[in-house]
Known about the structure:
This protein is an all-alpha fold. The chain has helices spanning 3-26, 41-49, 51-64, 88-95, 103-106, 110-125, 132-158, 165-183, 190-202, 215-225, 227-233, 235-240; strands at residues 68-70, 76-78. The chain has a two-stranded antiparallel ribbon with strand order 1-2. The termini are far apart. Residues 31-35 have low confidence and may be disordered.
Amino acid sequence: MGTGTWWCAAAAWAELLAAAVLLRGTGRGGGTGSAGAVPGPEALALLRGGRRAAVTVALVALHQRGAVAAGRKHTVRANGGPGRIRNPVQLAVHRSLRNALPPRALALRPEARRAVDGLRAELGRAGLLRPPGPRRAARLLSAAAPLTLAAGLLADAAAGDGPGLVPALALGVPVAVAAVALLRLPTTTGAARRLLAELRERHPLPAHRSEVTDGRLVQLYVALYGDPALALFLPRFSRDGGLLDER
């Protein structure tokens, strides 16, 4: 086995180590902690299901105020002014409804995207989401590691000094497995996943919607459970407005 393979193998593991350090660093932070404030429903939905889930909770809150209604063909439309709303995601979602839109398209409107990105940044600072910059760098390093090792193997093979199949697999498989594991690491941190699990334990989904009369609690259930909570508490609006199957 040539020295090129060994140098490239060392470089590949160095890339993986750097990626792991980046992801570990962005995953630190205690989140809200036991004494901290729990994030709002839109933030919890973002942690659970991403951008579309956060917009869905905003639509639920706006619908509770009478500010939006189901439109035609599984769309949502504005139903008057937003009232005295200060929530930036809800305001952005309402302003994006100049025309009736399906929720999936609404989540991609520039104003709604900016508001959700601002919420994402807040969650990153709280240690609940990995910031996009270090995460992208870590993904690039993880993807580059197998290519780095492959370059060394090919160079040595072209020089007639390549390893056999078994040694090549012994070097390549662990690098590939580690790279895939890092690439598949979720954007949420351990603190975020623990928070969601604790909230679901404290707020199991009721069997009947009559058990919940507080609109804010309805938003919390939609944030934590998604479609099952939508179908339970807002079946007509969710069905006619295209909110179900939020992914």
